[in-house]
Amino acid sequence: MADAKLHEELIVIDGHCDTALDLVGRSFTDHDMPPRDFLKRETKGHVDLPRLVEGGVTCQVMALFTNDENVAGANAYTKSLFAGVEDAFDRSDRFFPALNASDILRAKREGKVAALVSIEGGEAIGGSMDELRGFYARGVRLMGLTWSRRNALARGVGAEGSDGLTDFGRKVVAEMERLGMIVDVSHLSDEALDELLSVARRPLVASHSNSRVLCDHRRNLLDAQAEAIAATGGLVAVTFAGIFVDKDPARVTLPRVVEHIEHFLSVVGPDHVGIGSDFDGFTEKHGVALRGCDEMPRITAALLERGHPAETVGKIMGGNWLRVIGEILG
């Protein structure tokens, strides 16, 4: 019961989910799934408001992701996903946008859930700095420069080549830092990440990336990369997506996820590790470690059972995200 009590007291922040797709009937995991009502508890999908409350989640980062077939119209497509999230805001007094750290603290005080809106893939801004500023004005506070493909900002990890950031990408990073937007490195190629690290002036985050030492996948981070991200003052958020947890689906378990957390703790220390589930962005064929956001208390319990002090658990479950959000967003 001590672990349940601690979890209730924590500020819990999940740094990445793809649930916005489900809200408008474009599910990443089930293309035939009709739109889900975010305000009702569902058996499908991983995230909805009742399960976030049940799981003790204080802030959920809601990513706006454009799949390959919609890249040509990514700007409009992203805005349609954003509208789906805004509709959930409009229909509930328990779910509201987080524009800064104070909003997240208010959610905790009032027993509500805050949502920090992010963009996954710079295609969304359509090559326009004005569109970047427009998304910021509308409430976006984090952006991943790429998904796994190449775009006008940088080369993603799935695109062939040896190039990294583009000149436009460097300008976008500088403008994000000026505005007060978090720069997300997940999905960047190694070369793009190296170049980003050389120009970044504010903390960087990997919103949903695991250890390449434990699971040798190009989307995961090398120890030196994790150290460099931590050196900016940022964090690495461990994901539950099976393909990044272990190559053997049978080994995709909560204890294996905790091993990734503990590996990063050994590399960068307790101030630079967080959670980024990637809920509603992965399929069961690669294994399932957690089945939904209502199971978040299991992570707290597992970390305590492994002997980690409550202070460290609090940082991992949301404290480190809150620090970065406070530093960059205010």
Question: What attributes characterize this protein structure?
Answer:
globular; alpha/beta; single chain; 9-stranded parallel sheet; 330 residues
Describe the structure.
The protein is α/β, with parallel strands linked by helices and 330 residues long. The protein has one domain (2-329): Alpha-Beta Barrel (TIM Barrel), CATH 3.20.20.140. It is 42% helix and 12% strand. The protein contains 13 helices and nine strands. The protein has helices spanning 2-9, 19-23, 49-54, 74-91, 101-110, 129-138, 167-179, 190-199, 223-231, 242-245, 254-268, 297-305, 310-329; strands at 13-17, 59-65, 95-97, 113-120, 140-144, 182-184, 204-206, 235-238, 273-275. Strands 1, 2, 3, 4, 5, 6, 7, 8 and 9 form a nine-stranded parallel beta sheet that branches. Strand 4 (113-120), helix 6 and strand 5 (140-144) form a beta-alpha-beta unit. Helix 1 packs across helix 12 (297-305) and helix 6 (129-138) packs parallel to helix 7. The chain is globular, with a radius of gyration of 18 Å.
